[in-house]
Design goal:
By secondary structure, the chain is an alpha/beta fold. The chain is built from 7 helices and 6 strands; from the N terminus they run E-H-H-E-H-E-H-H-H-E-H-E-E. It has one domain: Rossmann fold, CATH 3.40.50.
């Protein structure tokens, strides 16, 4: 069983404006940089042995800061790419809520049944993420790894590992926030 410390990157201007980022490459804001520096102190006691991250600017910058502070290696993994939200990317969440209220409600309640126009289905994301964390679990066995991934991917991974249903994928997480979950391939469990 591997312990996964699921870490949200620091905030970007898109987060601060309530915009949908998806796979768009947006750098950390000044606030986001401060959030990651603050998160490092709390992460020191987690025993993280390696950091893996989404291949986007905010996750990579956050992962670099954390890895350097913890003196561990970091690596960006393509399969940890954020959910492609197609034509919604760059839009304000409030604009989607106003202009597409029915689809917005479906996305909030049952996101696995909705594909953003030109985007990616949740089941496809789950498959690539499950494949990746299973490989990491085998590689690190009883170790501890940090995954620096943006929302909504962090929510998808957390729900997948805990075997929970997805809801409200656009909730705004706090930049630099983290949670620890244990993962054994084929056995979803939550840890305190």
């Amino acid at each position: 069983m591997v312990k996964i410390v699921l870490i949200r990157p620091g905030s970007t201007e898109f987060d601060e404006e309530g915009r949908i980022q998806g796979t768009l490459d947006v750098p950390l804001s000044e606030q986001g940089r401060r959030e990651i520096v603050e998160a490092v102190d709390a992460l020191r006691g987690q025993g993280i042995q390696a950091i893996y991250c989404s291949p986007c600017e905010s996750a990579e910058e956050s992962a670099r800061v954390i890895a350097q502070a913890l003196q561990v290696k970091m690596k960006a993994l393509e399969n940890l790419q954020n959910l492609d939200q197609g034509l919604w990317q760059g839009m304000l969440i409030d604009d989607v809520r106003t202009k597409q209220p029915k689809v917005f409600r479906q996305w909030q309640d049952r996101p696995e049944n909705v594909c953003p126009p030109g985007g990616e289905m949740i089941d496809d994301v789950r498959q690539r993420v499950l494949q990746t964390i299973t490989k990491l679990a085998k590689k690190h066995k009883d170790g501890v790894v940090g995954l620096v991934v943006p929302e909504p991917l962090a929510n998808v991974i957390g729900c997948l590992i805990r075997d929970e249903s997805l809801r409200d994928l656009w909730r705004t997480g706090i930049g630099g926030a983290w949670e620890s979950v244990s993962f054994t391939p084929g056995v979803p469990t939550a840890s305190p």
